[in-house]
């Protein structure tokens, strides 16, 4: 499966919460190939910003040939994207990276765990899994973006740092407070959350797949700007690391050191 670079049209854009935006893009070739857990790189119209911005796929509409990106404004590039409207053109490269494994889970229960801007890529996974879904979503406060959409695909549990909704604390606090159990874990979010989930999965003997968040440069594995420690020696760099954009962003928990 080869990535393509194309000029796509924005289909729609809306603000979901403070600093959080949802943009649908018409990109039929990318939508036809994409899998949950992958990402695309968006290019700024400002020639001074040469490097693209990687954004995870939130939803894939293969029938309409569209992809949905839900992102947080984190700098000048994403600030620019937030002003785009329907009909505006944007250069897109994708689909990039690997995805979550979705086959062979019939009859099982899966945790889909998202923290902050790690929540969006779990939505397409929830749609495509053929098993019981328990989504555990971690937010800073009660700006519960995407929560209602997850409810269409399974049970949803919320943790908030300030206690304004759901369990006060983190996603593991919500799992324990609600007495939840699962046969497999899929997660995306900040490194401390992923590190805790890796330890939890090890204690419980549960297979666990983690989507790592990292600042990326090239997005195709050439520059080695987004590496993480790994147990195995990488065939490209010949050291104990993995390129998150190329080898990931999804890894089996035991593959990586956090």
Keywords:
258 residues, Elongation Factor Tu (Ef-tu), domain 3, Rossmann fold, 2 domains, 7-stranded antiparallel β-sheet, globular
The first-level CATH class of the largest domain is given as Alpha Beta
Oligomerization state of this entry?
Answer: single chain
Count the beta strands.
17
| Ends apart, CA distance between termini | 29 Å
**Whole-number count of domains:** 2
CATH topology group of the largest domain: Rossmann fold
Radius of gyration: 18 Å
Count of alpha/pi helices: 6
Largest sheet: number of strands, sense, barrel closure: 7 strands, antiparallel
CATH homologous superfamily caption of the largest domain: Nucleotide-binding domain of ferredoxin-NADP reductase (FNR) module
From N to C, what is the helix and strand string? EEHEEEEHEEHEHEEHEHEEEEE
Main sheet strand line-up: 4-3-7-1-2-6-5
What percent of residues are in strands?
35-45%
CATH architecture of the largest domain: 3-Layer(aba) Sandwich
Poorly predicted runs are: 215-228
Determine the mean pLDDT.
90
Shape: globular
Q: What percent of residues adopt helix (DSSP H or I)?
A: 10-25%
Structure description:
It is a single chain. With about 260 residues, the protein is an alpha/beta fold. The chain has two domains: about 90 residues, Beta Barrel (Elongation Factor Tu (Ef-tu), domain 3), CATH 2.40.30; about 100 residues, Rossmann fold. The protein contains six helices and 17 strands. The strands form three sheets. Strands 4-3-7-1-2-6-5 form a seven-stranded antiparallel β-sheet. Strands 11-10-9-8-12-13-16 form a seven-stranded mixed β-sheet, with helices on both faces. Strands 15-14-17 form a three-stranded antiparallel β-sheet, with no helix packed on it. A hairpin with a 2-residue loop joins β1 and β2. The chain is globular, with a radius of gyration of 18 Å. About 5% of the residues have low confidence.
């Amino acid at each position: 499966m080869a990535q393509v670079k194309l000029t796509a049209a924005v289909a729609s854009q809306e603000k979901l919460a403070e600093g959080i935006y949802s943009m649908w893009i018409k990109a039929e070739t990318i939508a036809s190939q994409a899998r949950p857990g992958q990402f695309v790189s968006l290019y700024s119209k400002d020639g001074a910003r040469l490097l693209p911005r990687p954004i995870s796929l939130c939803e894939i509409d293969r029938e309409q040939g569209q992809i949905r990106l839900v992102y947080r404004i984190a700098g000048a590039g994403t600030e620019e994207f937030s002003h785009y409207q329907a009909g505006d053109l944007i250069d897109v490269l994708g689909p990039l990276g690997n995805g979550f494994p979705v086959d062979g889970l019939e009859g099982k229960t899966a945790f889909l765990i998202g923290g902050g801007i790690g929540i969006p890529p779990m939505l397409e996974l929830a749609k495509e899994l053929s098993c019981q879904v328990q989504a555990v979503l971690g937010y800073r406060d009660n700006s519960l973006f995407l929560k209602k959409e997850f409810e269409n695909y399974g049970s949803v549990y919320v943790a908030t740092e300030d206690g304004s909704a759901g369990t006060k604390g983190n996603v593991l606090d919500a799992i324990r407070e609600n007495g939840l159990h699962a046969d497999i874990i899929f997660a995306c979010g900040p490194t401390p959350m992923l590190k805790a989930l890796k330890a939890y999965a090890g204690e419980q003997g549960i297979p666990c797949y983690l989507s790592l968040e990292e600042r990326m440069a090239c997005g195709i594995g050439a520059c080695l700007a987004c590496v993480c420690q790994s147990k195995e020696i990488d065939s490209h760099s010949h050291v104990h690391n993995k390129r998150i954009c190329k080898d990931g962003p999804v890894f089996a928990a035991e593959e990586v050191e956090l």
